Amino acid sequence: MSEVIAYMSNAKHIFGDGSEIEIGGLELDVLAGQKVAILGPNGSGKTTLLLLLMGLLRSHGGRVEIFGLDPYENFDKIKKNIGVIFQNIEAQLIAPTVKEDISYTPRNYNLPADEIERRVQKVLVLIGIEHIENKIIHYLSGGEKKKVALAGAMIMEPSLLILDEPFAGLDPRGVRELTALLQLFNDLYGTTVILSSHNVEISAQFADQLYVVAEGKIAIKGVPADIFKDIESLKKANLQAPGILELTYELKKNGLSVSPTSSLHEAVEQLTMLVKKRPQ
């Protein structure tokens, strides 16, 4: 049975001014090696959920665990095994050059210079940014900055990678490159990936488990195929369903023998069969 990497149930954070924010609803339980997407519109509670998992916010109620430990109380124990990419990349990249930024974490852990260099070169090559290792970060494109942040997050080869809105600001090519890199680390190291996004289509193509957060509650969870059977729940959560899914859903509502799907290939197959069955 796979190890539970992350768990959350009825978490609550109380701010200094007494205001509260809760993440209720269904339980979140992420297994080792899973690729999980937390879906929800802006303001739904996605980022709060991730901050609780990272141990950057304290849970004053319910239960939050990373590797079986309270992440806030055991932050120093778990931080080496978690890679993080925040939505605001600019604030995360703190060194002048690419190489200096990527090497920041291993230097902080006082690794030997030759080990730091080995790790830096390895992650540069894996991500495909060795040609910009001496570049000034300020002059990089948004996609390049995301790759540098990913290199810094993965240089210690953590077993868990948490990303907040990683696809924001990326063009289609940048999205494809980033998802391919996340898949690479999942395949290579068995890295568990938890990301937040409001883009249902991109997340469903990458993740094998989806959680839908709406108004501070985990309202839906399951594999993409099961969640996409209930398009009305996605709409209630103020999420835009994939275009192919909406098309096949509306065709079924209008009496055609079509099963709702987000797969272009499956949709084409179904529509082709319908056309072939039409009387000549």
From TrEMBL:
PROSITE patterns tied to this protein: ABC_TRANSPORTER_1 (PS00211), ABC_TRANSPORTER_2 (PS50893)
Record-linked SMART domains: AAA
Subcellular location field: Cell membrane
Keywords noted in UniProt: ATP-binding, Cell membrane, Membrane, Nucleotide-binding, Translocase, Transport
GO annotation, cellular component aspect: ATP-binding cassette (ABC) transporter complex
Family according to the record: Belongs to the ABC transporter superfamily.
Protein name stated in the entry: ABC transporter domain-containing protein
